[in-house]
Amino acid sequence: MRRREYFSKMKKLCKQLNALIPIKDDGDKDKLNALLYEMFTSTTDEPRYDMYWDREIYINHGFDFKKMKEFALHSGKVQFEPNEDPTEHPGVVIRYKSNTNQ
Known about the structure:
Elements: H1 3-19, H2 26-41, E1 50-53, H3 55-60, H4 65-74, E2 78-82, E3 91-96
Parallel strand pairs: 1-3
Antiparallel strand pairs: 2-3
């Protein structure tokens, strides 16, 4: 997939994911999980896509996946962004929103 196609697809996905966080109800959670599942299991995309955590979030939550996940889904302080390296690490990154820091 060419770089332009990758960013177009990832920006669309991130917009959909960002509209669902913070999670308000089970419907939002189900929609978010369905979008991520589709991204991870797509057989038409090469290479496979993945989800990455921003280093700062990773460190601030003590490398605890459960804490990071809860923070990402419920805090309203993060957003999904396309990873800048579609060759080696294609997918989305969970980062702090630019106007927040924890």
